Structure formats: C-alpha cells, structure tokens
Amino acid sequence: MDRPNYITPTGYAALRAEYDQLFAKERPALVETIAWAAGNGDRSENGDYIYGRKRLREIDRRLGFLSRRMKAAKVVDPAQAPDRTRIFFGATVTIADEDDQHRTLTLVGDDEADAAQGRVGWNAPLARALRTAAIGDLRRVTLPAGEKEYEVLAISYPAA
C-alpha cells in the first residue's frame, strides 16, 4: 500500500472482533460440518459438502483481507489531536453547501466509512477537500454529481 491505512481505535476493534469471530467460531464449526459431510459418501451431490467448501473459501478470503488491513493499519486516536481548530483525521465537522443544506460528518478510516451514519472515509474526495480547513473556510469539491462548494461551520473532536 502506498498510503497509510488510518483507522480509529473503535474501527480497529471492530476489524479485530470480526477476525476473531470468523477465525475462532465460524471457521472451526464449518470445518467440522465439512468433515461430517465428507464422511457421508459421494461428494459431488452432497449439498452440505459443496456449500461448506464454498463458504470456507469465502471465510478464508475475508480472513486474509482483514489480516492485511489490520497489519497495514495505523491507529490514530482523534481525542489526542493537537490542533483542534483545523480538520484532521477523526474530526466531526458541520458543513453547508451553496443551497444552505447542512451536513454533519466524521472523517474516519476507509475501513469504517458508512455514509448513512455520516462517517466519510479519509481518502474520499470530500474528506480530502476538507483536510486542514478551519471554521469559515470554503472548499470546492468535484463529486460525481458535479462541483460543489462547502463552508465549514463547526469542527469538534472526541473528548480526551
């Protein structure tokens, strides 16, 4: 990876929890089911065996992905931000567009982004445009729907 995989402590804990769940619970149970199904005879028409092998490949692929993401992760605690007057990783910002539509969003790691919850990935176009902005700054962003200008109305960080 050419750029760091920034992530909040909460986001890292969620990745770790998913990895542990898959590795310690789901995978062993599935291996047991596959072994039982394999002992039932003809594997070519054995649904439990075929589905189990397919699901095992999916789990192994996800475990590999999670492992790589956790290894590349750089955990950054937004509560420790030294400059709280500008937008950096973990900031919760309120912005307004040209139509005075207000949005509140939090800049988080790409692995924990969720637009429906107002969490925008650190490398998303909007987040890149807002980096280092202060209250009152105007930032222009090129989005798929066209170019928009946003004004920063508020910046906050979690309490230390």
CATH superfamily of the largest domain: Transcription elongation factor, GreA/GreB, C-terminal domain
Structural domains: how many: 2
Structural class by helix and strand composition: alpha/beta
Instruction: Return the string of H and E elements.
Output: EHHEEEEHEE
Any idea what the radius of gyration is?
22 Å
End-to-end C-alpha gap: 30 Å
Domain Transcription elongation factor GreA/GreB N-terminal: 5-75
Pfam family, one: GreA_GreB
Domain Transcription elongation factor GreA/GreB C-terminal: 85-157
Family: Belongs to the GreA/GreB family. GreB subfamily.
Structure, explained:
- GO terms for molecular function: DNA binding; RNA polymerase binding; translation elongation factor activity.
- Belongs to the GreA/GreB family. GreB subfamily.
- The strands form 2 sheets. This protein has a 5-stranded mixed sheet. A two-stranded parallel ribbon has the order 1-2.
- With 160 residues, the chain is an alpha/beta fold.
- Helix 1 runs antiparallel to helix 2.
- The protein is elongated, with a radius of gyration of 22 Å.
- It has 2 domains: 71 residues, Helix Hairpins (Orthogonal Bundle), CATH 1.10.287.180; 79 residues, Transcription elongation factor, GreA/GreB, C-terminal domain (Chitinase A, domain 3, Roll), CATH 3.10.50.
- The longest helix is centred in the N-terminal third of the chain and has 30 residues.
- It is built from 3 helices and 7 strands.
- Helices cover 39% and strands 24% of the residues.
